[in-house]
Amino acid sequence: MKSNLKGVISFMNVLELLDRIKRGEDSETQFKEKINSPDALAAEISAFVNSNGGKIFVGVSDDGKIKGLSFEEVGKLNQLISNVCSQKLDPPISVMTKNISFEDQMVVVIDVPRGTNKFYMANGRDVWVKVGADKRRARREELQRLLQEAKHIYADEMAIEQTEISDLNIGLFERYIERRTEQSFSSLKLSKEIILQNLKLMKEGQCTLAGLLLFGKRPEEKMPNVVVKAVSFYGNDPSGIQYKDSRNLKGNIGDLYRAGIAFFLNQLTLRQQKQNFNSIGVLEIPKIALEEALVNALLHRNYLISSHIRLFVFDDRVEIISPGSLPNTVNVESIKFGIHIERNPILASLINDIEDIPYRGIGTGIQRILRTCQDAGVKVDLIDDKVTEQFKIVFWRNSGE
User: Fold this and answer.
1) Region class of 124: left (phi > 0), else alpha (psi between -120 and 50), else beta
2) Can you give the pTM of this predicted structure?
3) Which backbone phi and psi does 322 adopt, to 5 degrees?
4) Whether the predicted pLDDT of 9 surpasses 50
5) Residue 317 and residue 314: Cα distance in Å, rounded?
6) pLDDT, the chain, mean
7) With DSSP H G I counted as helix, E B as strand and the rest as coil, what are the percentages for the chain, rounded to 5?
8) One-character DSSP codes across 75-94
């Protein structure tokens, strides 16, 4: 019985091996005919652990042919892997290895996890990341994103160069403080500079990202990636060159929210359901779902990625696309149950009192989207794309008809 079970497990391993080799190299699969250099192995593992993890197949050539390793080479490689993971990577990591035999050829599979304590440095000097099937040294922006993933830094706390208090709408800020504290600003007996610093809206005389987003006069002049791209297409193809409407939404987070909702209301239709003839119809996609999705995009996007939130309206669907995939320990299924991690904690802690923005901060936004759309018969897809580093909510039009 034990012998038969062992044979089944070995057979499954071979099938998995052949399937992965057949699919070729990608961002989570690397082929190496031989690895003898500890520095080279450290670089390969660093690239995977700093990205989304993956598998290194040693004993397989770049063109997918199984060359195999000898019994002696397998032993040396496993010792090399152990030494590299403990001595050549900072911080050290643990990987799983598996020796798979196929037609008298031995392949070693190194299973590298996605790192939770980024970034990981190889050989005391280099930080590598995966780019498709290849790797390269991380750029400054990527290092910041890796640190953000590990919760060592937060984008919204970072000071923005060449900014000062004059870049903020102080009147808007004072009204916000009065609404938040329920007393006049002058009665607080603190200067606006001190309050801004205490709320982490300014740091060392410069505006933080949170400060610009919440109260900036023209934040897009200092941070171009805060512009929201809104496009209504003819048909269902985003590569089409004709569109019904295209707008660059600018301003602080309140301006962006109001402009985004106005764009949706202008592009979507009101439909008669059970109302009488003279009643106003119901928006084809529940307004509350659009509001929640847009707030989530503005609040939880990764502001260290030089890209824009995009609002796309097609004939068959509406897409809200946010730069940045879900954080490490969260996935699509968990957010459906209200699990969330604050990527921008300053924004999350202050946005509740921004006028007109319906944010509750208790992690129920996705649940509210799904429930209201289910009640309206609207199909919703949540797509977490780790490769392109974006999160997308898709509302399907006409799905309730």
Assistant:
1) left
2) 0.72
3) -110, 135
4) no
5) 5
6) 88
7) 40, 20, 40
8) HHHHHHHHHIIIIIEES---
